[in-house]
Amino acid sequence: MAPPYTVAPHLEYLNVPLAELSASRPEFESFGVGGYIFAEPPSTNANSSPRILLIQRALTDTMGGCWEGPGGASEPDIDQTLLDGVVREVLEETGLNVSRIVDLVAVDSWQHLRRNGDMLRIAKYSFIVDVYEATGPYDEIPVRLEPTEHQAFDWALEEEVREVMQSNTGKFQLPLAANWNHGPNLVRAFAWFRKQQAGSTKESL
């Protein structure tokens, strides 16, 4: 069981039973969640830029080889709220325990064709989250993957994400930008992080 987590006050409107959220968004039949995790580099690293955790889908899974942030579908039978779904997915996919849901980066929607021919309308909420284990630089954070779902993890720089989006070259390859708005949402997450850093710098002056 995951330890308790806190929610930023401006996100409390999402901290409601899934049935209540579904009733407020009747245009969707299913909800997805994502949790972006940032970490600082080691002090010995020449590049002091922040990094974001990406995990690579197992080649035997759907969209094998795709790099993405932790996330998945909310489960009404398991998750009391959408935010519980974020916490569960992050834990299942990375072994990390969410300590706080900090902000909402994006809400994306798409349609998925079911095998019976019906269209499933999905909305995905992507959040910035803090994790209990992030007490030091990224190379000290104990990420543990579920091997049937993901085969590798890495801590990506913003320029690495942008390189994939702009030229389809680089470390993380095309699937990062090609599926479910991953690339643009990662850029939004980095923009959010820079804004927080700028605010912290002003407060310390």
TrEMBL record:
Spans traversing the lipid bilayer: none
PROSITE patterns named in the record: NUDIX
One Pfam family from the record: NUDIX
InterPro entries (UniProt xref): NUDIX_hydrolase-like_dom_sf, NUDIX_hydrolase_dom
Residue runs in coiled coils: none
Domain of life of the native organism: Eukaryota
Domain Nudix hydrolase: 28-178
PANTHER family membership: ADP-RIBOSE PYROPHOSPHATASE, DIHYDRONEOPTERIN TRIPHOSPHATE DIPHOSPHATASE
Protein name: Nudix hydrolase domain-containing protein
Source organism per UniProt: Penicillium cosmopolitanum
Upper taxonomic lineage: Eukaryota, Fungi, Dikarya, Ascomycota, Pezizomycotina
